[in-house]
# Entry
Amino acid sequence: MGQSKNSCPRFREFDRRVFEKSLEWLNDPEIKYLIVAPDSDRESRERWFNSLKTNKSQYIKSIWCKEEPIGAFGIKHITPVDGEVWGYIGEKKHWGKTLGKQMFQYLVDYARSNKMTSLYARLLKDNIRSYNLFLKIGFVFEKDIGENMILMRLFL
# Structure
């Protein structure tokens, strides 16, 4: 993509360094709440990380700024036609700087190039930032999926 070494954002593989940072980010109560992260221990997260190379139902990347990992994103539950997008900026000083939009646009482009027909996102009703972000990208409200959760979908 012609990104310079210090440009922001840069998208990279989800490696051990990002995994270790993600353990910190997912222990932040605000981030954990906003992305509806389940409780899990280090051992189960290690098993998940070690499965990434062979798990074809997941596509995961990391986002970097100035040689520092700042977040993670991807598509899970991938089928031949759709998948669930997820992501977060773990370094809060980077919140509100359009990085989330670039991150999810990267996933939309990936899904299109892989002939998927739609992407969906599960989010908290009160996560207004994410809701507005998904609207800007073209997702639409599909349905309520629980007391405080909604499903949004983008048809590709």
In short: Helices lie at 16-25, 29-34, 42-51, 99-113, 128-137. The beta strands are 10-13, 58-65, 68-76, 84-89, 118-124, 140-146, 149-155. The mean pLDDT is 92. The CA atoms of residues 70 and 92 lie 9 Å apart.
